[in-house]
Amino acid sequence: MTTFSISEKEYKLRLEHIRKYLTKRKLDALYLTNGTSMFYLTGYSFISTERPAALIIPANGKTTFIGPLLEKEHVPLETKLIEDVKTYVDYPGEKHPMEHFAEFLKDMKLAGKRIGTDSGTGAAGMWGYKGEPLAKKLPGTRFVDASDLVPSMRLVKSKDEIALIRESAKWANLATALMQEYAEEGSWDVDIAFAAAHETSVIMKKTLGFDYAPKRSMFPVTAVFRGQIGEMTAIPHSLSTKQMIKKGDVIISELAVDVGGYSCELERSIIMGKPSTKQERYFNAVVKAQEAAFETFKDGAKCSDIDKATIGVFKKAGLMNLVKHHTGHGLGLEGHEPPWLDIGNDEPLRAGMVVSCEPGIYEVGFGGFRHSDTVLITEDGAELLTYYPRNLEQLTIL
Q1: pLDDT given at position 123
Q2: Bridge partners of residue 381, in order along the sequence
Q3: Which one of 3.40.50.2300, 3.90.230.10, 3.20.20.70, 3.30.300.20 gives the CATH number of domain 155-397?
Q4: What's the CA gap between 359 and 326, in Å, rounded?
Q5: Of 65, 284, 355, 374, which one has the fewest beta carbons inside 10 Å?
Q6: In whole numbers, what is the pLDDT of the chain averaged over residues?
């Protein structure tokens, strides 16, 4: 039977790992404010706002969520792993949330103890939040930096995590095909992306059935061009454009699909009409750079080795001056997460890591070229989880 979330058994193993860490470090609890970390450990996802929230995992005791009242009924709908919920009404409130949090920790017999945390203030600090650090409310309590704990656990994906990313990639391929099919001269990239995302989402729900719903996104499929049309493709992190697609444009599609809270990444450079000689040269250089990276991926290879492989291709082609970013990054619960495929990062890749491979080149006033694929590092090399065509012929719209 196909499932669309991490099993309760795996979540329990993650919590068990946390408690072993606490024992080893002689800590009495872990206090987390990062929403992604909370989801990773419990399966509970919520909308982070200015209202502070935290997950507390005692070395001995109940896993507890503390946060705004509006989450009280939400928690048990999403997870059984959170055993207690303590709430305050709202922020800033007649009584500041940090005052409540201090009382909650006292109730849990954690005042005066050693607590690992990912936040020195006790809150995520979003959307204009202001408040005194929690430590000031609990004199004698020692908060110890443990901000790397959960991110380090997330580096190597489990079989279940890989299965969810693999499923995500299937639907990303479909949505990319629809984006290319719907793209035409005179159209606005937003219309095309919305249509492809909507159609793919509807088909996903019909195919996957009643049990499917996105876990960390409001929509199953995020399909965008992000304004990367024509000359604007030279701006890698463009947000939008007012121009319509015209003949001769390069357009860059981007896809993410939420399956169990996990997503792949799939991007393609597409040419509207017969490519010019220069477009063909740049396009093929990007493909060669990707292929050089694919050949370098393996268990034990350094992240810097991957970046060096693509840099080598661009230098040989005389295009290094057009490179604006490193080759890729980790994928999973977030669009960007460690490890970083950067020349300055000698961290070794390990079997089970999932990364993007997206070397690109960008010439202002002309255009940008970038494909991105999701790559699983295996014991004997790597596997491409996204498999949409990468060659110029199939990515040309005539």
Answers
A1: 86
A2: 378
A3: 3.90.230.10
A4: 7
A5: 284
A6: 95
Residue with token string 């290879």? 301
CA distance 56 to 118: 11
Domain ranges within the chain, ordered by starting residue: 8-152, 155-397
Residues 385, 376 contacting (CB under 8 angstroms): yes
CATH superfamily of 8-152: Creatinase/prolidase N-terminal domain (3.40.350.10)
Task: Read off the tokens for 24.
Answer: 């080893």
d(CA 152, CA 18): 12
Q: Above pLDDT 90, what percent of the chain? A: 95
- The span from the CA of 268 to the CA of 179, in Å, is 10
Q: How confident is the model at residue 4 (pLDDT cuts 50, 70, 90)?
A: confident
Rg of the chain over Cα atoms, rounded to whole angstroms, equals: 23
Q: 0.85 exceeded by the pTM?
A: yes
- Residue 128: CB atoms within 10 Å: 8
C-alpha pair distances (Å), 325 with each of 203, 294, 342, 359: 35, 18, 9, 8
pLDDT surpassing 70 at residue 329: yes
Asked whether residue 310 carries a pLDDT value surpassing 90, the answer given is yes
Q: How far apart are CA 281 and CA 313, in angstroms?
A: 13
